Amino acid sequence: VMLLAAQVMLLAGQVMLLAAQVMLLAVQVMLLAAQVMLLAAQVMLLAGQVMLLAGQVMVLAAQVMLLAGQVMLLAGQVMLLAAQVMLLAVQVMLLAAQVMLLAAQVMVLAAQVMVLAAQVMLLAAQVMVLAAQVMLLAAQVMVLAAQVMVLAAQVMLLAAQVMLLAGQVMVLAAQVMLLAAQVMLLAGQVMVLAAQVMLLAAQVILLAAQ
């Protein structure tokens, strides 16, 4: 009976050793999965950093575009001011021509020519005012586009920060999984040691039974 019990105990020890080996294999698989997850998290972190750099470059380009739009807007305002000054000069010239026409009937032909030149100059000034208004409108559209680009770059920066945060959380989860795998590996090693002790005890009992 003691011999049979020793054989049963020996068989149980072998089964326990086999279960410990299976547990060690599962721990190794879990450790490999944790390492793969850690590598994926590092790749995600790198992609987030690249996206953050692209967002910063996009913000810089938008700021340059906004500065160019502001310069263009200032130039349009200067051009509009010059056109208004030119229009005022033409109106003064036209008034002087009308006074000269009224005062000097002898110089009627010259005054008419001067009036015609003033009208042509007035038309050119009106065209210049229209061009300045169009340039101001284009500058305002360019400034609005730059503001929209800055907003899009800020949204891209926010998404990159969220992606970086998710990568950090994934790294933390992978580290926790690695720690759990190390604890499970330690438990498997303890289980193997217990199975070896049980096998040794069974061999001693078997030897004693013999």
Describe this structure in words.
This protein is mainly alpha-helical. It has helices at residues 2-103, 108-209. Helix 1 runs antiparallel to helix 2. The protein is rod-shaped. The termini are close together. The relative contact order is 0.20.
Apparent shape: rod-shaped
The residue fraction in helices comes out at over 70%
Q: What is the rounded distance between the termini?
A: 11 Å
Secondary-structure-based class equals mainly alpha
Sketch the major β-sheet: none
Low-confidence stretches: none
Q: Which secondary structure elements does this structure contain, and how are they paired or packed?
A:
Layout: H1 2-103, H2 108-209
Which terms would index this structure?
single chain; 210 residues; mainly alpha
Task: Give a quick summary of the entry.
The chain has 210 residues and is mostly helical. Helix content is 97%, strand content 0%.
